[in-house]
UniProtKB/TrEMBL annotation, chain A:
Gene3D superfamilies: 3.30.450.60. It comes from Equus caballus. GO terms for cellular component: AP-1 adaptor complex; clathrin-coated pit. This is AP complex subunit sigma. The lineage of its organism: Eukaryota, Metazoa, Chordata, Craniata, Vertebrata. Keywords: Coated pit, Cytoplasmic vesicle, Golgi apparatus, Membrane, Protein transport, Transport.
UniProtKB/TrEMBL annotation, chain B:
It comes from Equus caballus (Horse). Component of the adaptor protein complex 2 (AP-2). Adaptor protein complexes function in protein transport via transport vesicles in different membrane traffic pathways. Adaptor protein complexes are vesicle coat components and appear to be involved in cargo selection and vesicle formation. AP-2 is involved in clathrin-dependent endocytosis in which cargo proteins are incorporated into vesicles surrounded by clathrin (clathrin-coated vesicles, CCVs) which are destined for fusion with the early endosome. The keyword 4Fe-4S does not apply. Adaptor protein complex 2 (AP-2) is a heterotetramer composed of two large adaptins (alpha-type subunit AP2A1 or AP2A2 and beta-type subunit AP2B1), a medium adaptin (mu-type subunit AP2M1) and a small adaptin (sigma-type subunit AP2S1). Keywords: Cell membrane, Coated pit, Endocytosis, Membrane, Protein transport, Transport. Residues 585-649 are annotated as: Disordered. Residues 678-791 form the Clathrin adaptor alpha/beta/gamma-adaptin appendage Ig-like subdomain domain. This is AP-2 complex subunit alpha.
Length: 168, 910
């Protein structure tokens, strides 16, 4: 039997995972403290569970004591875990708004954008969701914050030639 | 033997270095970023953390940003680095630069450890309510505080700020309101009184949103739905409270009606986002209506709305409607309305293609079940069970068993149902279920004859489930006499029928059948010899299974020696079972988590008090014992408190009881411990202790008043160390000034293995003594006990300070008070080599100032000792006298004890 992930206080989102159709994890955000081992175990189980589901199935499922809300966009699955009392539909739209933010920032985002600019994906997520709660739902405001940071980056650091180049 | 120099191969080197050269900020950032990338590809990263922490203090935004990202992705809230990170955060929070503040707040919200709560829980409320804080910072501060409150509610002080936070619900900026609402909701759950005023504010805010035109809220309108996230949050906040006062309540009811009305309007967009956002608000509104459970009109409207969704083409909506209706079913106002949808729901069982939706349908049938529809629902569930997914079969079995028992008017129906369960899904019928049917049959004499007849008939099937053999064996053993009058089920036929299954069954079932046989001996004297023959056969008396053999021997003996009276007494019919909570219900609770089932059950009980007494209400304590306590596990990695540092209070003195071998006594310091200790004053890494069995290595790093020490225990033997217990011992004085935290290590150290222990160190105030590390373990049969002084010395918290000659002498003069100066003249113990001396002074932690002293042979140093409470400036001067092979060392600091201690420590080095 699984151990329960329990919180004395209501918590909107427990974690968010992005993974590809091949099961490769592309982004992970944990809003509850868990050990690396547990994170890996959860990821492995969830990726398997979600990938096994057929396209027309519903976007919600019960998993352990949590509710999983997921949606597939092209080759990427976006998957959130919320608590029992939480609102599934609004979580589905959290996912969509995040995708819109990525899309707007990268200009029709694809999986490679998230792989090679993972730091941006995280920065955008932090502006949108903080501590598992929606912080700012206005697309304009979130992107403004990110653009300001980008300006700071350019003005401060001319020699920094873009992360992806360095990583490759 | 582990050679001492193998130490360099110890793991967890927390720093990068290319050769010995430190990296510049750009490279650090680059490598930290690469590490992150590697981590995100799924590999483990266990170094580089220190570099990321260093990046936090960078003035370059990008370096800082990557540092923070690394920390929030890779650092767990129980990491040892938190205190170092906290320093950087503190600086950024104080910077007044909104971008930096944002990064720092995001980091706190992402990591959210208790240490962070300790450091910032007082500060963040101030940022949140300060008039000049930017909106975006306010948003982050609100959610950051929320995270800390969840981690450590005790550390977030309630105060004046709470009323100002409530008024953020009126803020002009909807983003601020969104963030603040989450915070208020959580705070209100714990402190409802304090946040009571939020109810009316939330209602008026909600009212303004739901009545606004779809363009009013500009960018906060999402696919023609005004501020859906905020609406959901406000509705959620209202669920922390009972229905409000009449005035506010009228307004709220209007809001809820508006939301229900909008659901009926034609969609403004065909996009699924529009309908999702709109329905998200609707479902949350329905949750609130159910929570208040006081407006029959709204409840029935909600139910009708959900009824429409039951047949919606969107799978998601059907799923949610089924789920939401489960809670509606428990309200007395809407229970009947929910029941009208029974056909749709049973139909869903047959037609839904997604198992998770079918599961919801089963849940809803269970929730809407009462005496009026129990037979229909149980029949539907049983027929679904024939084809149900394996993953939910056990749960359906439990539900059917509970409903059948609870709503049985006629217990023959109950018995039939359970036997059907066993027939259809025998493998999923747990012990609890068949125990329960036996309990009920035994307790109700009106059903015993029927039960005996039914099991007898069921057993005649050529292949029947073993669970049926168990139930049949037990019931016939008790009540077989009730059907023995019928020649078709005479005692011998009953026995032969049971015995024909005997050899196909597992050991526990066979044991049960043997008991049935001996009961038959009592019930039916005419089959006694037949049964004795069976018991006497080799396959019983010489059975390899001890239990079976023993039963056969004893039962055979009992049947031969005992008189009829004694047999009748020993094998009397079972007495009725005491009424208690159904073990099946307990099992379902365990399966589904206590809250969901209990709520439903309680609601059901209230509604149907007249029915079957049902499962008795489980007192809170009973349900707590039958289900795992929620606080007990948390995956075992929650906030395990750090191991207590220091000895049990009784052993305050260190060197007591030298001769004792008892594990509680602390060994005297190991020989050579003092020398080894002195060697670590000017360095941080190396072997602290070594004997035939054990090697203790150290690696440590210090920053300002904080430090980390890795202790490596190497087992040099090929035998396990058992009960391996290292303990840090500080005197009371020392403990007040030096705080050490560590976790226990694994008590078993395999031969040739090393274990690592991390000690987090905080210098609260200056200190003189050193902590003692005591290690106790068993090696072979012998008890080992070793104590060494742990080289955590005051000079470790030095930060070097460069200064010009003029400054130095000016400060030197300022510290001319006699208490501030300590001087020591001593004989050189080592060759007087200039370079070595320089290296030692630098290793000691102070800056080595060149060209300050007019005499170039002298050495001059300066630095600052960092403690939590204060910083102490230190100047030192070392004058060698080659001819006399003597030194004169002078220390001047603002604190006498510091001068004294530093002088002692440094004097030992030359």
């Amino acid at each position: 039997m699984y151990t329960r992930i329990q919180h004395p206080l209501h918590l909107s989102m427990q974690f968010m995972l992005l993974f590809s159709r091949q099961g490769k994890l592309r982004l992970q955000k944990w809003y509850v403290p868990l050990s690396d081992k547990e994170k890996k175990k959860i990821t492995r189980e969830l990726v398997q569970t979600v990938l096994a589901r057929k396209p027309k199935m519903c976007s919600f499922l019960e998993w352990r004591d949590l509710k999983i809300v997921y949606k597939r966009y092209a080759s990427l699955y976006f998957c959130c875990a919320i608590e029992d009392q939480d609102n599934e539909l609004i979580t589905l739209e959290i996912i969509h708004r995040y995708v819109e933010l990525l899309d707007k920032y990268f200009g029709s985002v694809c999986e490679l954008d998230i792989i090679f600019n993972f730091e941006k994906a995280y920065f955008i997520l932090d502006e949108f969701l903080l501590g598992g709660e929606v912080q700012e739902t206005s697309k304009k405001n979130v992107l403004k914050a990110i653009e300001q940071a980008d300006l700071l980056q350019e003005s401060q650091n001319e020699e920094w030639g873009g992360l992806s180049e360095d990583i490759l | 033997m582990l050679p001492a120099d193998e130490f360099s191969a110890f793991p967890a080197s927390p720093t990068f270095s290319v050769g010995d050269k430190a990296l510049d900020g750009y490279s650090k950032k680059k490598y930290v970023c690469k590490l992150l990338f590697i981590f995100l590809l799924g590999h483990d990263i266990d170094f580089g953390h220190m570099e990321a922490v260093n990046l936090l203090s960078s003035n370059r935004y990008t370096e800082k940003q990557i540092g923070y990202l690394f920390i929030s992705v890779l650092v767990n809230s129980n990491s040892e680095l938190i205190r170092l990170i906290n320093n950087a955060i503190k600086n950024d929070l104080a910077s007044r630069n909104p971008t930096f503040m944002g990064l720092a707040l995001h980091c706190i919200a992402n990591v959210g450890s208790r240490e962070m709560a300790e450091a910032f829980a007082g500060e963040i409320p101030k940022i949140l309510v300060a008039g000049d804080t930017m909106d975006s910072v306010k948003q982050s501060a609100a959610l950051c505080l929320l995270r800390l409150y969840r981690t450590s509610p005790d550390l977030v002080p309630m105060g004046d700020w709470t009323s100002r936070v409530v008024h953020l619900l009126n803020d002009q900026h909807l983003g601020v309101v969104t963030a603040a609402t989450s915070l208020i909701t959580t705070l209100a759950q714990k402190n409802p009184e304090e946040f009571k005023t939020s109810v009316s504010l939330a209602v008026s805010r909600l009212s303004r949103i739901v009545t606004s035109a779809s363009t009013d809220l500009q960018d906060y309108t999402y696919y023609f739905v005004p501020a859906p996230w905020l609406s959901v949050k406000l509705l959620r906040l209202l669920q922390c409270y009972p229905p409000p006062d009449p005035a506010v309540r009228g307004r709220l009811t209007e809001c809820l009606e508006t939301i229900l009305n909008k659901a009926q309007e034609p969609p403004k967009s065909k996009k699924v986002q529009h309908s999702n956002a709109k329905n998200a608000v609707l479902f949350e509104a329905i949750s609130l209506i159910i929570h208040h459970d006081s407006e029959p009109n709204l409840l029935v409207r909600a139910c009708n709305q959900l009824g429409q969704f039951l047949q919606h083409r969107e799978t998601n909506l059907r799923y949610l409607a089924l789920e939401s209706m489960c809670t509606l079913a428990s309200s007395e106002f809407s229970h009947e309305a929910v029941k009208t949808h029974i056909e749709t729901v049973t139909n869903a069982l047959k037609t839904e293609r997604d198992v998770s939706v079918r599961q919801r349908a089963v849940d809803l049938l269970y929730a809407m079940c009462d005496r009026s529809n129990a037979q229909q629902i149980v029949a539907e569930m049983l027929s679904y069970l024939e084809t149900a997914d394996y993953s939910i079969r056990e749960e359906i079995v439990l539900k059917v068993a509970i409903l059948a028992e609870k709503y049985a008017v006629d217990y023959t129906w109950y018995v039939d149902t359970i036997l059907n369960l066993i027939r259809i899904a025998g493998d999923y019928v747990s012990e609890e279920v068949w125990y329960r049917v036996i309990q009920i049959v035994i307790n109700r004499d009106d059903v015993q004859g029927y039960a005996a007849k039914t099991v007898f008939e069921a057993l005649q099937a050529p292949a029947c489930h073993e669970n049926l053999v168990k139930v049949g064996g037990y019931i016939l053993g008790e009540f077989g006499n009730l059907i023995a009058g019928d020649p078709r089920s005479s005692p011998l036929i009953q026995f032969n029928l049971l015995h024909s299954k005997f050899h196909l069954c597992s050991v526990p079932t066979r044991a049960l059948l043997l008991s049935t046989y001996i009961k038959f001996v009592n019930l039916f004297p005419e089959v006694k010899t037949t049964i004795q023959d069976v018991l006497r056969s080799d396959s019983q008396l010489k059975n390899a299974d001890v239990e079976l053999q023993q039963r056969a021997v004893e039962y055979l003996r009992l049947s031969t020696v005992a008189s009829t009276d004694i047999l009748a007494t020993v094998l009397e019919e079972m007495p009725p079972f005491p009424e208690r909570e159904s073990s099946i219900l307990a099992k379902l609770k365990k399966k589904k988590g206590p809250s969901t089932v209990t709520d439903l059950e309680e609601a059901k009980r209230e509604r149907s008090a007249d029915i079957n007494g049902g499962p008795e209400p489980a007192p809170a304590s009973a349900s707590a014992t039958s289900t795992p306590s929620p606080s007990a596990d948390l995956l075992g990695l929650g906030a395990a408190p750090p191991a207590p540092v220091g000895p049990p209070p009784s052993s305050g003195g260190l060197l007591v009881d030298v001769f004792s071998d008892s594990p509680s006594a602390v060994a005297p310091l190991a020989p050579g411990s003092e020398d080894n200790f002195a060697r670590f004053v000017c360095k941080n890494n190396g072997v602290l202790f070594e004997n035939q069995l054990l090697q203790i290595g150290l690696k440590s790093e210090f920053r300002q008043n904080l430090g980390r020490m890795f202790i490596f225990y190497g087992n040099k033997t090929s035998t396990q160390f058992l009960s391996f217990t290292p303990t840090l011992i500080c005197s009371d004085d020392l403990r007040a000034n030096l705080s050490l935290q560590t976790k226990p290590v694994d008590p078993t150290v395999d031969g040739g293995a090393q274990v690592q222990q991390v000690v987090n160190i905080e210098c609260v105030s200056d200190f003189t003594e050193a902590p003692v590390l005591n290690i106790q373990f068993r090696y072979g049969g012998t008890f080992q006990n070793v104590s060494v002084k742990l080289p955590i010395t005051l000079n470790k918290f030095f930060q070097p300070t460069e200064m010009a000659s003029q400054d130095f002498f000016q400060r030197w003069k300022q510290l001319s008070n006699p208490q501030q100066e300590v001087q020591n003249i001593f004989k050189a113990k080592h060759p007087m080599d200039t370079e070595i001396t320089k290296a030692k002074i630098i290793g000691f932690g102070s800056a080595l100032l060149e060209e300050v002293d007019p005499n170039p042979a002298n050495f001059v140093g300066a630095g600052i000792i960092h403690t939590k409470t204060t910083q102490i400036g230190c100047l030192l001067r070392l004058e060698p006298n080659l001819q006399a092979q003597m030194y004169r060392l002078t220390l001047r600091t603002s604190k006498e004890t510091v001068s004294q201690r530093l002088c002692e420590l440094l004097s030992e080095q030359f």
